[in-house]
Design brief:
This protein has seven helices and twelve strands.
Length: 291
């Protein structure tokens, strides 16, 4: 077994911290600190859901493990410098880490990214995969450098199915075992001094956040494109959907079906789509209703 490493974990929720923490322990390593990013970018207001997440983290963080909630990248770096880290593991941490942070751990920083890099670099790989109608996802563990998702690959696996009615609740159980298996492989390869396999930049694509126009149903798109648009919003959270103006009212489209069924028939560029669940676009109205 490789020499045990002192490890920091930077992630976005109690479940994620718990899984990564357990994987490290199972392979003889010692997590000593968790870091949670409370906002999408440093020096910006705290996200509305951050207080609830912090509460769940405080309930789940193991005894003796410090929890950092930095407001800036510089503050994160100053805090991490005191932990004598061998490695920092990042999964879903929204901030770009500057070189001053990347240099702190002896073995650098590794990132867990939910795509087969160099495909879908960027902050929203799963959303882009759903939007594009991909039938499967991949996961990559790579060394972090100064840019987003460009560092050498340590471990990678594809073939994770994406359900048509995809939600975090039914996708995460499919991702979790792959993430933990790949992390275990990466920890071994790091101990062996493996530098990682460079990415082929010519194959790269970018998975940015959804543009404002994506929040509106455009019937000049195909039925499948609109179906995937609705699936993307559904994955983002319950009660979310793109808006559609029809018959003098504005609706959020919550669920659709490509095959004929009961509901609103929507004529798209290449044929019909059936809307099976909607909600009023006015947030003061009832939260959901069948179409």
């Amino acid at each position: 077994m490789a020499d045990p490493m002192r490890i920091g974990i930077a992630s976005f929720g109690a479940r994620e911290f718990q899984g990564l923490h357990s994987t490290c322990l199972q392979h003889g390593h010692h997590p000593v600190v968790h870091a949670y990013c409370r906002s999408m970018r440093p020096r910006t207001p705290t996200d509305t859901y951050a207080a609830e997440t912090v509460g769940s983290l405080l309930r789940e963080v193991p005894a003796g493990i410090d929890l950092l909630i930095p407001g800036t990248s510089a503050g994160l770096g100053k805090a991490l410098a005191g932990y004598d880290l061998d490695l920092l593991i990042v999964y879903g941490f929204s901030w770009r880490l500057p070189p001053s942070v990347l240099r702190i751990p002896r073995h650098g920083v590794i990132n867990i990214h939910c795509s087969l890099l160099p495909e879908y670099r960027g902050p929203a790989p799963v959303l882009r995969a759903i939007r594009n109608g991909d039938s499967h996802l991949g996961v990559t563990v790579h060394r972090m450098d100064e840019n987003f998702d460009t560092g050498p690959i340590l471990a990678q696996q594809g073939g994770i199915p994406v359900p048509d009615d995809v939600t975090p609740g039914n996708l995460q159980p499919l991702l979790d075992p792959v993430i933990h298996s790949l992390l275990a492989d990466a920890l071994v390869r790091l101990a062996e001094g493996f530098p990682g396999t460079p990415q082929d930049d010519s194959l790269a694509s970018y998975a940015g956040l959804m543009e404002p126009d994506f929040s509106v149903v455009d019937t000049s798109r195909t039925a499948r494109e609109i179906h995937n648009q609705v699936r993307t919003f559904r994955f983002m959270g319950p009660g979310l959907g793109p808006t559609l103006s029809t018959e003098g009212q504005s609706l959020k489209v919550l669920r659709t079906q490509l095959a004929p069924t009961a509901g609103i028939r929507l004529e798209c560029a290449d044929g019909p789509l059936w809307i099976t669940e909607t909600a009023p676009a006015n947030p003061t109205a009832d939260s959901s209703a069948p179409a």
